[in-house]
C-alpha cells in the first residue's frame, strides 16, 4: 500500500510535466498547420493538436487527485481518478492513432499542393515579385522547388519563360543572387517537400510518442489506485 501511495505521488508530478509537454506539442502542430494553411485544405488535420491540448487540461486535475490520494485516500477521489485516467487513455489513443495516420497520409497531399503552387507562380527572371505562397515557403524553409530547383525549370519551359528560378530559392548569405542558373551554388539544394514533410512528421510523431508513454504511465497509475481501492472495499455495494 505504501509503495502504491509513493507511486501515485510520483505520477502526479509526471502528469503535470506531461501536461506541459502536451501543450507544447499541441500548439506546435496547430501553429504549423496554420502557417501552411494554403497547403492543407482539411481543417481536421489539426485534430491531434487539439486533442493534445484537451489531454493537457485534464492532466492537471488528475495530478491533483493523484497527490491527494497518496496523502489521504478517499473513495470519491479514487473513483474520480479512475474515470479521469480512463478518459485520458481514450483521448491519447485517439490522438496517437490520428497523428500516425496523418503523418503517412499528408505526403502525397503536400506534393500535389506544392506542384500547383509552382505552376501558378508568376515570375520573371528580370523581376521577381517574391510575395507568393511558394516564395514564403522557400524563404522560411530555405528550400527550392518541390523536389529541387529543376521543378522551376519544368514550369518555366511550360510557360516559355527564360530558364531561371525565383529569388526566394537563393541562400540567405548570397545577397546578390537573382535566381540565375549560371550560379547554381547560390541556390538552396533541398526541395521544400522533404523539409516540410519532415517538420510535420516530427511534430506528429512527438505527439504520438508522448501519448504512448503517457498511456503506459496512466495504466500504472490506475493499477496503483486499484491497489489502494482494495484496502477500502465497498462493502455495501459488493453485490454489484
TrEMBL record:
<feature type="transmembrane region" description="Helical">
    <location>
        <begin position="12"/>
        <end position="30"/>
    </location>
</feature>
<feature type="transmembrane region" description="Helical">
    <location>
        <begin position="203"/>
        <end position="228"/>
    </location>
</feature>
<keyword id="KW-0472">Membrane</keyword>
<protein>
    <submittedName>
        <fullName>TSN3 protein</fullName>
    </submittedName>
</protein>
<feature type="transmembrane region" description="Helical">
    <location>
        <begin position="81"/>
        <end position="102"/>
    </location>
</feature>
<dbReference type="InterPro" id="IPR018499">
    <property type="entry name" value="Tetraspanin/Peripherin"/>
</dbReference>
<keyword id="KW-0812">Transmembrane</keyword>
<dbReference type="InterPro" id="IPR008952">
    <property type="entry name" value="Tetraspanin_EC2_sf"/>
</dbReference>
<keyword id="KW-1133">Transmembrane helix</keyword>
<feature type="transmembrane region" description="Helical">
    <location>
        <begin position="50"/>
        <end position="69"/>
    </location>
</feature>
<dbReference type="Pfam" id="PF00335">
    <property type="entry name" value="Tetraspanin"/>
</dbReference>
<dbReference type="GO" id="GO:0005886">
    <property type="term" value="C:plasma membrane"/>
</dbReference>
Amino acid at each position: 500500500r505504501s509503495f502504491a501511495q509513493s507511486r501515485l505521488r510520483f505520477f502526479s508530478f509526471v502528469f503535470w510535466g506531461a501536461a506541459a509537454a502536451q501543450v507544447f506539442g499541441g500548439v506546435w502542430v496547430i501553429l504549423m498547420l496554420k502557417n501552411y494553411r494554403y497547403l492543407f485544405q482539411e481543417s481536421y488535420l489539426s485534430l491531434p493538436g487539439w486533442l493534445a491540448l484537451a489531454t493537457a487540461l485534464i492532466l492537471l486535475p488528475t495530478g491533483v487527485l493523484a497527490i491527494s490520494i497518496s496523502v489521504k485516500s478517499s473513495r470519491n477521489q479514487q473513483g474520480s481518478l479512475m474515470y479521469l485516467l480512463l478518459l485520458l487513455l481514450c483521448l491519447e489513443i485517439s490522438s496517437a492513432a490520428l497523428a500516425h495516420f496523418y503523418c503517412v497520409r499528408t505526403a502525397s497531399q503536400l506534393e500535389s499542393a506544392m506542384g500547383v503552387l509552382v505552376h501558378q507562380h508568376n515570375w520573371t527572371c528580370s523581376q521577381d515579385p517574391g510575395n507568393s505562397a511558394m516564395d514564403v515557403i522557400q524563404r522560411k524553409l530555405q528550400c527550392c522547388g518541390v523536389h529541387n530547383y529543376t521543378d522551376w525549370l519544368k514550369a518555366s519551359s511550360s510557360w516559355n519563360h527564360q530558364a531561371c528560378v525565383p529569388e526566394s530559392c537563393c541562400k540567405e548569405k548570397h545577397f546578390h543572387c537573382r535566381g540565375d542558373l549560371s550560379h547554381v551554388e547560390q541556390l538552396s539544394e533541398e526541395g521544400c517537400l522533404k523539409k516540410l514533410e519532415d517538420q510535420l512528421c516530427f511534430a506528429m510523431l512527438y505527439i504520438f510518442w508522448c501519448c504512448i508513454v503517457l498511456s503506459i504511465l496512466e495504466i500504472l497509475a490506475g493499477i496503483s489506485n486499484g491497489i489502494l481501492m482494495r484496502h477500502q472495499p465497498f462493502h455495501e455495494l459488493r453485490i454489484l
